[in-house]
Design brief:
By secondary structure, this protein is an alpha/beta fold. The protein folds into 2 domains: 37 residues; 154 residues, Glutaredoxin (3-Layer(aba) Sandwich), CATH 3.40.30.10. The strands form 2 sheets. It has a 5-stranded mixed β-sheet with strand order 5-4-3-6-7. Strands 1-2 form a two-stranded antiparallel ribbon. The relative contact order is 0.17.
């Protein structure tokens, strides 16, 4: 074997070893793209599914009344024994305006309780929002600093959760309630929760 051939072999090996991290990075990037890049963000699983709903009480929205009575805030004790739909919303959230009429329709279903968590909003704007669309919520808790949203695992508003009769989170919808998902997803999951433990 010539001296030149012997010196080329270690040089080729060094070149291959230098390319190895790039090849590994590209393989991982491709894997993440195909597994996560094209998924529907509304289907992001929540680590809280099957766990008790957060036990964080939230104060009521100041000045919000229904039929002359103040609308109560969020007391976690209300989850026990009933199916609850919890919607995290804000007046500054554009998709929240789009989903409001659908939530008003959902609020007419007396088999469940609809609860609003008003996220980082001003009380005046939140009341105006509910005045414009109607208040579908039996309870409205104010999350002024966003701490409760962190405990609920909220990625961004709007998000909607279903809490079963046992007080555990059974479903999470990331993003707005839409005409496309209200029947096929949200109401289907509500029906499952209503049948479970009845």
């Amino acid at each position: 074997m010539s001296e030149q051939a012997t010196s080329e072999a270690p040089a080729q090996r060094r070149s291959f070893l230098m390319l190895l991290p790039l090849v590994a990075f590209l393989a991982l990037a491709a894997l993440f793209w195909f597994r996560l890049g094209d998924t529907d963000p509304s289907r992001i699983p929540s680590a809280l599914i099957g766990h008790p709903a957060p036990q964080t009480p939230l104060p009521p929205l100041d000045g919000l009344v229904t039929d002359g009575a103040p609308v109560p805030g969020l007391d976690p004790a209300i989850f026990k024994g009933k199916v609850s739909v919890i919607n995290v919303w804000a007046s500054w959230c554009i998709p929240c305006h789009d989903e409001a009429p659908l939530l008003t329709e959902l609020g007419r279903d007396k088999r469940l309780q609809l609860i609003g968590i008003n996220y980082k909003d001003s009380p005046d704007n939140a009341r105006r929002f509910l005045g414009r669309y109607g208040n579908p919520y039996g309870f409205v808790g104010v999350d002024g600093n966003g701490r409760a949203a962190i405990e609920w695992g909220v990625y961004g508003v709007p998000e909607t959760f279903i809490v079963g009769r046992e007080g555990k989170i059974v479903y999470k919808l990331v993003g707005p309630v839409t005409p496309d998902n209200i029947d096929s997803e949200l109401k289907a999951e509500i029906d499952k929760a209503l049948k479970s433990g009845s």
